[in-house]
Amino acid sequence: MTFATTTYFPGFGLASFRAQRGKRWAEIVDWVSKLPSSDPQVMAMSLTVKRVRRAVGAGQPACRDPFCAICASQTLAQFQGSEQQLIDMFHRSVDEMRMSIAGMRVRESVPQHAYATVAA
To answer: For 73-86, what is each residue's pLDDT tens digit?
Structure first.
């Protein structure tokens, strides 16, 4: 499965990606690169890059990896916003990922017979 690869958020090739903005951005990239791929912050980083790509009209990346540090760096190079705007976008993505995951956990805890009652 593609999401199990290290390229979901690679621990390598990030020098250019982390250097795209200032010190605070680099610290976030360093922090996220140490987290497991299942962490909401890792997923949020990937989501942030996808949103930036869409905002700058970059289209799809040239590679097939879910998160390629080279393609992500090229995308961020086109982003005209400030470091703070990029960081804010990342934090919004983190919040969204956490809410989505919390929603999944709530749905998982609903007993199966509850669905049968609703359908009846």
So the answer is: 888 888 999 999 99
Q: Which long-range contacts (CB under 8 A, 24 or more apart) does 47-54 make?
A: 47/93, 47/96, 47/97, 48/86, 48/89, 48/90, 48/93, 49/75, 49/76, 51/89, 51/93, 52/76, 52/78, 52/79, 52/86, 52/89
Higher pLDDT, 70 or 105: 70
Positive or negative: CA dihedral 43, 3, 68, 11: positive
Q: What pLDDT is stored for residue 95 in this prediction?
A: 96
pTM, full prediction: 0.73
> Per-domain residue ranges for the chain?
2-119
Q: Is 7 helix (H, G, I), strand (E, B) or coil?
A: helix
The neighbour count for residue 93, using CB atoms within 10 Å, is: 21
Q: What percent of the chain has pLDDT over 70?
A: 68
40 alpha carbon, distance to own chain's centre: 8
